[in-house]
C-alpha cells in the first residue's frame, strides 16, 4: 500500500526472508522489538531505512532520518519463521508494489548482521560480547572472520579473485564513468568486486563488472559490499551487491577489506578515501608485512591526476618514501590497471600457497591494535591525536587515519554532525611539518568539491592547529 509522507512517497509492506535469516530465537526477536533494551532496535531501524533508501542521492545520515520520521519496521514471529512488517518505507524500493529482490536480500542481511554482531556501532558492545575477546588483537580479527563467515563470504574452494575498490561517494560523472570502465576490464578478467557498497566509486566498478562478467558468461560473479551502521545511511547499498555485510564499526569494516581482498584499487574521493589509504599504508609499513605481496593501485581519469599528485606528496611529506613504494599510480588506463591487479592477485595466490595461508582470509597480515580499536571522534579524542614526526611511521599513519575518520564523521555521520552542532569544529593538533600538508590536502578536497554531494555547500567541521610538541595540550 503506497501513500505520501510529507514530500516523499512511501509504502507499507510485509516481506518474507530471502537468504539465510529465516528464524530468530525469542530473545533475539525481543531485543529487536520496541520493548527491547540496548538500542538494537534503533540500529536495525536506521540500517533498514538506509537499505530501502537505495538510489536516492543523500550523504547525510541525520537528513535521511528526518526525511522518513514515520518509518518503522517490526518483526512478526510465526511458527514457520519470521516476516518483517514495514511502514512508511521509501517507495523507490518497490516496483509495482513488490520490493526489489536485491533490496529485500539486503534487508535480511541487515537483520542477520545486527543480530549476530549484537552490539552497538560504537563498538562498546562490539561484536557479540562474550563470544569474542575484543581486548586482544587476535580476538578482534577472530570477530571479523566470524562475521564474514556467518555472512557466507569466506568460501574455502574459491581461487583468489577479489578486487577491492575504494573511492568517493560524491565524484564527478567523468570519474564515475571511469570507475565503470575499470570494473568492466576487471570483469573481463574474471575478477570479483568488493566495495563499500554505496554510490559513486563504490557502485561504478560493480556496474562495469556486470557487463564484463556477462560477456565472459561468468555464472555467479560476486559483488561484495562491506559497510557499518555509522556510514550506511550516508552510503545506501546499491542493489547490485549480492553479498552485503554490516560490520559493527569502521575499524572492523576496514579490517574485513584487507583480510578478504586480494587486490586493491583506489579511485578519487575525499576524506573517507584518504582514511582508507592511510589505513592500508599504516598496515603495510609494519615490518612484519614487508614481504607480503599486496597489489595496490591509485587510478583515475586524466582530470584526477592532480588529486593523486596531492595525495602522493602528502604521503611523501608525512610517511616517507617507503610508504610511496607500496602503491602504483596509473592515470587514465583501465586495461593497465586491470592487468596490474590481475597479475598482482596471481602473486598473492603463489605467496598464500607457499606460506600455507588461506585464499579466502589473509591470516598472515599483521594488523596492530592501533588500527583495530574503535575511534570515537569526540573533540577531546581529536585533540589528543599524536601527529608528530618522531612517532613510528605505522603509528603515525594510525593517528592520521583517525584524524581523517573524525572529519568523515563530522561531514556525514549522524553522531558526528550532532557533535559539531553542539561544540563547533574539531581541532586537529600536531607538528607544523605534518599539519601544513594535511591542511593543504583537506583544502584541496574542499576546493575540488569532494567533501559533500555536488550542489551542496560545505562548512568545514574541523580546524587544523599546527603546534610544536612541547606546546601540546595535556590529555
UniProtKB/TrEMBL annotation:
InterPro entries: LOG_fam (IPR031100), LOG_family_nucleotidases (IPR052341), PpnN (IPR049788), PpnN-like_sf (IPR037153), PpnN_C (IPR021826), PpnN_N (IPR027820). Its EC number is 3.2.2.4. It catalyses: AMP + H2O = D-ribose 5-phosphate + adenine. It is an enzyme of class 3 (hydrolase). Residues 346-465 form the Pyrimidine/purine nucleotide 5'-monophosphate nucleosidase C-terminal domain. Residues 14-118 form the Pyrimidine/purine nucleotide 5'-monophosphate nucleosidase N-terminal domain. This is AMP nucleosidase. Transmembrane segments: none annotated. It comes from the Bacteria.
Amino acid at each position: 500500500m503506497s501513500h505520501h509522507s510529507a514530500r516523499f512517497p512511501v509504502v507499507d509492506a510485509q516481506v518474507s526472508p530471502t537468504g539465510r535469516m529465516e528464524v530468530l530465537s525469542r530473545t533475539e526477536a525481543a531485543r529487536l522489538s520496541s520493548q527491547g533494551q540496548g538500542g538494537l532496535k534503533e540500529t536495525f531501524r536506521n540500517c533498514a531505512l538506509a537499505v530501502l533508501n537505495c538510489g536516492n542521492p543523500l550523504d547525510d545520515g541525520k537528513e535521511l532520518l528526518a526525511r522518513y520520521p514515520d518509518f518503522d519496521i517490526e518483526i512478526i514471529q510465526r511458527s514457520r519463521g519470521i516476516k518483517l512488517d514495514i511502514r512508511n518505507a521509501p517507495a523507490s524500493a518497490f516496483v509495482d508494489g513488490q520490493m526489489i529482490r536485491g533490496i529485500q536480500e539486503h534487508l535480511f542481511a541487515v537483520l542477520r548482521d545486527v543480530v549476530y554482531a549484537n552490539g552497538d556501532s560504537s563498538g562498546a558492545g562490539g561484536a557479540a560480547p562474550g563470544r569474542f575477546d575484543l581486548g586482544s588483537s587476535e580476538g578482534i580479527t577472530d570477530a571479523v572472520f566470524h562475521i564474514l563467515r556467518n555472512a557466507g563470504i569466506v568460501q574455502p574452494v574459491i581461487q583468489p579473485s577479489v578486487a577491492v575498490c575504494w573511492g568517493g561517494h560524491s565524484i564527478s560523472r567523468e570519474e564515475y564513468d571511469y570507475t565503470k570502465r575499470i570494473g568492466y576490464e576487471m570483469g573481463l578478467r574474471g575478477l570479483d568486486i568488493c566495495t563499500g557498497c554505496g554510490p559513486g566509486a563504490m557502485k561504478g566498478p560493480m556496474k562495469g563488472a556486470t557487463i564484463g562478467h556477462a560477456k565472459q558468461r561468468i555464472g555467479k560473479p560476486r559483488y561484495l559490499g562491506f559497510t557499518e551502521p555509522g556510514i550506511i545511511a550516508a552510503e545506501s547499498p546499491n542493489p547490485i551487491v549480492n553479498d552485503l555485510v554490516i560490520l559493527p564499526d569502521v575499524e572492523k569494516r576496514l579490517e574485513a577489506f584487507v583480510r578478504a581482498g586480494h587486490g586493491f584499487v583506489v579511485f578519487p574521493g575525499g576524506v573517507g578515501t584518504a582514511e582508507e589509504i592511510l589505513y592500508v599504508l599504516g598496515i603495510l609499513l609494519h615490518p612484519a608485512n614487508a614481504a607480503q605481496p599486496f597489489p595496490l593501485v591509485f587510478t583515475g581519469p586524466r582530470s584526477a591526476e592532480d588529486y593523486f599528485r596531492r595525495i602522493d606528496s602528502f604521503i611523501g611529506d608525512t610517511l616517507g618514501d617507503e610508504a610511496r613504494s607500496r602503491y602504483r599510480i596509473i592515470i587514465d588506463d583501465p586495461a593497465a590497471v586491470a592487468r596490474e591487479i590481475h597479475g598482482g592477485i596471481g602473486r598473492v595466490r603463489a605467496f598464500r600457497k607457499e606460506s600455507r595461508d588461506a585464499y579466502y582470509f589473509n591470516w598472515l597480515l599483521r594488523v596492530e591494535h592501533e588500527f583495530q580499536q574503535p575511534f570515537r571522534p569526540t573533540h577531546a579524542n581529536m585533540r589528543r591525536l599524536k601527529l608528530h614526526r618522531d612517532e613510528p611511521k605505522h603509528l603515525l599513519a594510525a593517528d592520521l587515519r583517525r584524524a581523517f575518520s573524525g572529519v568523515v564523521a563530522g561531514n556525514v555521520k549522524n553522531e558526528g554532525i550532532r557533535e559539531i552542532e553542539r561544540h563547533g569544529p574539531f581541532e586537529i593538533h600536531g607538528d607544523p611539518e605534518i599539519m601544513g600538508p594535511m591542511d593543504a590536502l583537506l583544502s584541496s578536497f574542499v576546493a575540488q568539491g569532494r567533501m559533500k554531494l555536488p550542489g551542496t555547500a560545505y562548512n568545514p567541521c574541523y580546524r587544523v592547529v599546527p603546534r610544536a610538541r612541547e606546546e601540546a595540550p595535556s590529555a
